[in-house]
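Handout, section B. The chain below has 434 residues.
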Amino acid sequence: MNTASSNTHAAHAPLTPAPAWYEQGLPHIWLPYSQMQTAPPPLPCVATQGSRITLADGRTLVDGVAAWWTACHGYNHPHIHAAAAEQLARMPHVMFGGMAHEPALRLASRLCALLPGDLERVFFTDSGSVAVEVAMKMAIQYRLNRGEQTRTKMLAFQGGYHGDTLATMAICDPEEGMHHLYGAALAQHVIAPLPVDEASTARFYSLLEQHAHELAAIIVEPLVQGAGGMLFHPSHVLQTLRAAADRYDVLLILDEIFTGFGRTGSLFACQQAGIVPDIITLSKALTGGTMALAATIARRHVFEAFLSDNPEHALMHGPTFMANPLACACANASLDLFESEPRLEQVAAINAILTEELEACRHLPGVRDVRTLGAIGVVELERIANPDSLRQTFITHGAWVRPFRNIVYLTPAFTISEDELRHLTRTIRTVLAS
């Protein structure tokens, strides 16, 4: 479905000349997920506040995706700013090799207290992809340290996405995912359909029976496969995976980089299934969208497999900016806000509006499905011929909505006002109906 005209880009030229920094720097930038020969130039942004982004030419956009799902408290929350300023003045960074500091240790203890079960050992990194790579290394070395030399593969799922680094690309969807070009260069893992019904569950168990001897872990994005197309699955799928992992002595890794911190309606998605993973990965909203930080958190029995007199049994990984104090201070401030402000209630209110407002899209031409969960709203189309052009059309309506694949979606800040949210949903209805 092509919902924007081919001359949109010309119509959306900045209202004033671009800043000098933009003109000088743009020729040296390589943009993410962009065909640089044909992609429209990025928008020069100069300020953020709440759920709004101010452009250099004075226009303001309501942000419908919360800075790639990270700014859960909105932009520029004063409590996070104050924590960052105080930490910046005292100690912006110190190496974590052989040293420790209060922001990281306090954050680790708070995360473990919030998570279910005995998820009690936190390994900090600085991006979601690396957090997943660490989880994979933990799972593989857990086997190697126990003398299980053959169990080095992951079982992942169709529609899944776990990152853009080489190891994580290998466990993304190999056919529909954005990394299929690298197939020959990637490690080979077992990729299965999600066990959502009786037939697919039977196939899943058959695969496990066949491959358990070579599997270190099962990895899944709980409840929502995000970058794979905002694909939802019911919580009983996670219960099936937990039972299967126990039956075949396989670790279960939950990638909650997108779903963690309230996005699906509970603080962590796994809580809706009542299960405890062996390893969980967190990032994105961890710092409220202010600093790069990620965490890989393991249960007690996983950590204990690394304790040994043999130095080779140690986990040999250590990012330079691991447990950056400034980022950890922001994350602690973000957790303060989850404790002191009604974030999950706000998510429930957002869900009610998304469900009400987007349902009208279901009967529009070219719409395949409409679905909502927590603070996620999705309109799935038969196809989007030109996502860049469609995005430019949303911009003319004062909305920052970033379609991809065949979906138009909203993942707003939990603090977004009702007027701002309804502006986003109304814009989606208007644009898709045109």
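Note. Residues 1-13 have pLDDT under 50 and may be disordered. Compare this with the example in section A.
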